[in-house]
Amino acid sequence: MKPSRIILILTFFIFLSSSIFASVQDENLQNRQRVRENIITLKWLRLTQALDLTEEQAAKIFPFVNRIEKQKLQIQKSMSKDIGELRRILKESPLFDPKKDQEKEMEIFDKLKSHREYQRLIRQKDEEIEDFLEKNLTTVQKAKYLLFQVDFYRGLGETLDRARMMRNRGLQKQEEQ
């Protein structure tokens, strides 16, 4: 076989494998996005029951919360993209000399700065929800909301821990076989 054909075939396989890898990463990002959305939906459905919201309250609260949560998801999506780029930068040259490579240093600095801004925006959106609920819930509902938040996130953390343990056990079994 001619060397040019071999190079062409190798180039094709490299291109194919890189496109498959990119599609797997996109799929993982989409899956994480769906999981995040499902958790938010579950949280607000369970919250409706826990707070005994009236129809009027639900009609007022949910459109507002839904809009803010969608904004937060967009912020988190941008944040994830920046984190991925930061990982790429550090992976490409983990031991670069900041004095010699000021462009890379500035790129990292900019990613860190934008990450802090994304965190600030998310906190701001959370405060908007808190302020809105403060104005639209009774004192008893506010207390129930506080307890719900604590219980929901504790339960979510425990569920994620169990899922990780089960996944690790499955990986260990695969390694043993």
Distance between the termini: 40 Å
Write down the overall geometry.
flat
Overall tally of structural domains = 1
The succession of helices and strands, N to C, reads HHHH
- The stretches of 5 or more residues where confidence is low (pLDDT under 50) are 2-8, 15-19
Strand content: under 5%
Largest sheet: none
Distinct helical segment count: 4
SS elements, strand count:
0
Helix content: over 70%
Report mean pLDDT, rounded to a whole number: 81
Helix/strand/pairing category? mainly alpha
Radius of gyration: 23 Å
Question: In words, what does this structure look like?
Answer:
- With 177 residues, this protein is mostly helical.
- It has one domain (3-176).
- Helices cover 90% and strands 0% of the residues.
- The protein contains 4 helices and no strands.
- It has helices at 3-51, 55-92, 102-136, 139-176.
- The longest helix has 49 residues, at 3-51.
- The chain is flat.
- The chain starts with a helix and ends with a helix.
- Mean pLDDT is 81; it is low at 2-8 and 15-19.
